[in-house]
Amino acid sequence: MEVDVSAHTAQEATAGAGQERGPGRAVSQRDWWVIGLLLAFFTLNFADKAAIGLAAPDVERELGLDAGQYGLVSSSFFWLFAVGAVVLALLFRRIGWRWSAALLMLAWVASMAPLTVPTTLTVLIVSRMVLGFFEGPAHVLCQSIVADRFAPERRAFAGAVVNAGSSLGPLAAAPVLTWVILTWSWHAAFLVLVGAGLAWVVVWWLVTRREPGMGRPGTAPPRAGRAAEPADPHGDIEVSLPALLRLGSFWGLALLSFAGYLITSLKVAWLPSFLHNGMGYSQQTVGVLVTLPYGLAVVVLLAAGWLSGRLLRAGRTARAARGFLTAGFLCFAGLAMIAFTRVPPGGLQLALVVGAFSINSVAFSVAFAGAADFLPRRHRPGFFGCIIAVYSVAGIVAPWALGLIVDAASTPARGYADGFLVVGIAICLFAVAGGLLLNPARSREVLLAGTTRRRAAVKAAEAEAAR
Fold first, then answer.
1. For the chain, what is the mean pLDDT?
2. Which residues form the Major facilitator superfamily (MFS) profile domain (predicted)?
């Protein structure tokens, strides 16, 4: 059956014209206020991830940990990450974006509070597990809000702005938290994060108190002059969540995200230790050097989001603008990682390290924007939650496995080289497979065809029952 996708696109544009909010209209100042707060939300999300890596030498000394045990601590963050991503994401549309974001931030603050004082290995692991559970759905929340507020050609860039927080968090936190750790203790670093989180909740609550679309859908009809909930551009698709999970695009997104999260989890957990123990830099110097890949990542992320939108406006397919583009960036990161394990210490190796660790977030903005090109709004939390459940496995396995490899090697430098070589190869393989599988236009055609068959079956059953 042939599906007229172009006609549907034209209908979307017509429906969107004149709306104050939603796809098809210009970006308003109100949108950027929300995006700015989500950027700060994601910044804190990654600042607290980075804190444990920056504090690694002090944590290891205070608790008497070896590399394998520290890898286990880093891995514990992801043990409940997937569970939180799926379970909590399904509640988002029920309680609304405003409450979801505020409650997540308060949960982060509560989970970090025990680390503001001297603690034990057990408390540290439990704290990281709880934090991971409540941070699991953060990306679902942010990308769902972006998909609600921006048209397809603007969605990747807006998502990239929010995801820039994954780099801005460690970029801003690294020198500040390193100074706090060296001046006072690693416990003081978490006290700073607790205070920043509470401040964010207050600002978010004040700014979004009258923002349309932030509350639970259907509970508060818009007042005169206030924007209504935007129409779902894919509301004509009627399929179940399991049907969405059978799409090639689902597995393409999952593989691209898995490749990106291999980089993310190792950057957060091991990059400071690698620079210190593997490359020989002092802890104070590491506090500066670790900001380099995060700083470059902001530029790469925004450039990738802009380029994806530019490709769509130039008439390129969503498959090229989302899947192939993301795969290309990730393959570059994988090759750079392979290369820095083969060259001697020095400026070239540092440049390759910075390049390899600056690409990861592209998978979570450009590629995820491809899902919004075919995904009905009601299925976004569950769909994205399942993707997070897949890629969180990278966060469980990679930090712990790298720690074991470092412990087993003759020297830390040799262990890091062996571990990163394997990871670099894996990144390239997952990126190529994911880029080939992600095809938003084809997925939309498949879903529309499934919807037609389902409606025909219902009509046939009704006709049979009427006889």
1. 82
2. 34-442
